[in-house]
Structure formats: structure tokens, C-alpha cells
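We store amino acids, C-alpha cells; thus:
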Amino acid sequence: MLFDEVVQTSARVAATGSRTAKVAALAQTLASADGVELEILAHYLSGSLRQRRTGVGWRSLLARPEPAEAPGLTLTEVDAVFAELALLAGAGSQGVRQQLLAELMARATAAEQSYLSGLLTGETRQGALEGLLLPAIAAAFGVGVDAVRRAAMFAGSIPVVAVAARAGGEPALAAITLQVGRPVLPMLAASAPSVAEALERFGVGTPVAVEAKLDGIRIQVHRDGEEVRAYSRSLDDITARLPQVVAAVAALPARRLVLDGEALALRPDGRPLLFQDTASAGAELRPFFFDLLHLDDLDLVDEPFAARQERLAGLAPPELLVDRVVTAEPATAEEFSRTMLAAGQEGVVIKALDGGYAAGRRGAGWVKVKPVHTLDLVVLAVEWGSGRRRGWLSNIHLGARDPDTGGFVMLGKTFKGMTDQMLTWQTERFLALETHREGHVVVVRPEQVVQIAFDGVQRSTRYPAGMALRFARVVRYREDKGAAEADTVAAVRALAR
């Protein structure tokens, strides 16, 4: 398969606003790939590389050779060059890297050069992401989309799922299950503005679990015999950072298990530290678990939440568990929420007792309630500051994710909540992400997620979504989230309602 077919498919996806047309274009290209090509193709269509690092920075891509007149590069040739780049290290490696990159670019057309640059920098994010690729895989290989989604949850890899779907259909997808030692995508919570509204979503009089929402680091801990590994929300191995977590899990009476929870730093009086203190290097982080996905020989992901909680309570001592109460009474839930807020927690998460673990999805089974509205948005551009902020990038443009287009919709700007330290950091960060300038505005690749607090959503004719955030201010930059995990336009509209 020519690399140009990836480029042309990506262009068709970007050019249409129709989700159906996007999925059809992706499915057609996926179906035409051969055995070796499919895994590479699935990576490239999702804007990623098989190699986690190539050593190529954005500055290396500023100068490009004259493009080729006609397409000639194949998928496997491009992947082979990236693999060679990833292996380079030591003295002289940078020169060899530049030579390999120049030779690759010289064989690429202008359109291919742009796409290659996007792959190397992570800029290729025009809609061919999980929400589109999973149904495209289902259509390409004649399997159910639910089977594809479930396999992707447990594999943590869309390319692996694509290869399995073509090789063995739904039986091969069904064989991809939770494995101790291989992290799964974490289940996520929807949002509600109040405890009362959250409870309404589960039905009046329905018993639910109301749990403390900790503002810590999401962790998934796997134990297989004596080996304990801890993974972050983004499935990175962070075991070395969490010795207390490892020790606590190693002491539990089980041979094999998978736990879901948060790691948190506490003050001497037991109150939680601020998130930036929890996330800082050197902080002593304690685990607090709220779910159990596997225990010895039992997979529990499809068990009701109440059953998973019962097993978790029988496994771990109370000091390792998140505070919770089970109730059908709104007054009890409200009181518990107030108690958790008074104790310094971020809010509460209300959970259905009969739900399974929906890995990687923000389903209806978990609903978080925080006293201040916050959204995780993506920075689209930044304006140079004036007055005391002259010389710093200050006013950030905020975008919500639009799953239907794969792009982002601007919701406003803010310069509030920024310390001098934050301004220094973000100036360096966004100059590194710069794509071009429009006057005093630096347009950046949509990669950096920022948590924004705000007082409400109001109608606005200034922005394309028809709404804007009121009194938006920066809470923190999210290093644990990618742009694909940012909040959606639909979530903002729900808050507006």
C-alpha cells in the first residue's frame, strides 16, 4: 500500500462533516490493507506511530527538501525509517537522524511531507480517532461494533484490535480480555451540577453508592504474584513513583489482582494536599482504591459494582478504601457530599450498584459532582501579553472537543488564574507547539489540556458553538490527559441546560 493512500484517506475524512462518510472512508482503506500493513495503517490513521519515540523534534521539520513529484513511498518503507530513527542513540546519532529524515522527506510529495510531519509531532488529529476508527474497523471486517469497542478497552490498542478483527472476526475479538499486567482503559464519570440532578439520572428511590471524589493521580495497580505494577490514567508505567502504593498492594491477601483508585498526598492532619503538591516529584503518595477488576482467577469487570465492592471490602483494609455510603435518600447523599467537601475532597462520585466496569468509556453508571464547574479543554491559540505580562504568552483560547468532526470548538479565552511561574511555563510550552501566527496570536497544535473553572455557560454570538464560559479561570494544566480526553461540546451544552 502506498503511503499516499493514508494521506488521501485522511484528507477525505477531514473534508467531510458527515460521521457516516468519515467511517466509510476509513473502512474502505482499512479493508484494502494486507496483513503486514494493517497495523501500521491503523496507527497512521489515528495519528500515531508504532514507535513511541523517534528523537525527531518539531524544529527538525522546519526545513524540508524539494518534494517528490509523484507518490512512491509505501507504508512499510515509512515504518522502517521510523523504526531506524527510534533505535539511534549516542554520539553522531543526531547527524544520522537528520540524514535519514531528509532522505525520507525527499521521496515524499508535498502532501506526504505534511502528513509525515504531523505524525512525527503528534499534530495529525483531524477526526480519525477512536470514535471513528472503531466503527470503521467493524464495517471493514464485518464484525459488531460493540465487540470491537470491548476488545479495544482491554487491548488498549486500536491497531491490535484491527488485526484481530480481520484475522479471526468476533471470536478473535472476544479472546481479547483483561490480562493482569496489561493496563486497561479506565472507566470515566459523566458530570452533573448537583447531587440532586445526579441522583435523578439513576431514578428516584434507587440505591446508589456515593463516594468521595479525590483530587489525586488516577492509578490502576496490577499484581501478579510478587510483581506489582502501577499505571497512570494514560496507561504509562509509574511504578517507580509509587513505593507506598506498591508496598500496600503487595501486603494484600491475593496472588493476582487489578485495582482501580487514586494516589494522594496527605497533610499531617490527614487532609489532602493540593493536586500540584500531589503531582510534584518526591511527594509521598498513598493509595485509595474504589474498584476491583480482577481477583486471583476471577475477572470481575462484568460483575455488578455492588459485587465488586463487596469483594474489595473483604480484600483491603478500610484505610486503603475511598470513603463511601450506599443510600437511596437524597438527604443522606447531600450530607455525605458536604462532609467530603469539608474534609478537603473535590466532591463526590455517584455510582450505579448494578453496573459493570465500562473500561475507557464515560458512561451513565458513574456521575461526578463537584461544587465548582470545571471542564478539561484544549488550548487552541495564545495571545502575547501586554503591560506587566509583556513578553509572556498570556490569554489562552479554549476549545471543547467535537467527536463528530474530530476537531475543537472555541468557547472563549482567559488569562485569569495564572501565576508568574505558570506564565513562564506556558510561554515555553506553547512556543514549542506553535504552528503559525496571526498578528499577536500564536496558533498552536491542539495538544495541551487545561482544567478551567467557570461560573456558568452563557449564549454567545462570538463563538461558533453559540455559547461561552462565564468568568473562566485556569485551575491547572493537565499533564495526565491528552486532547482526545478533553470534554466535549455536548458536555458543555448539558451544563448550559
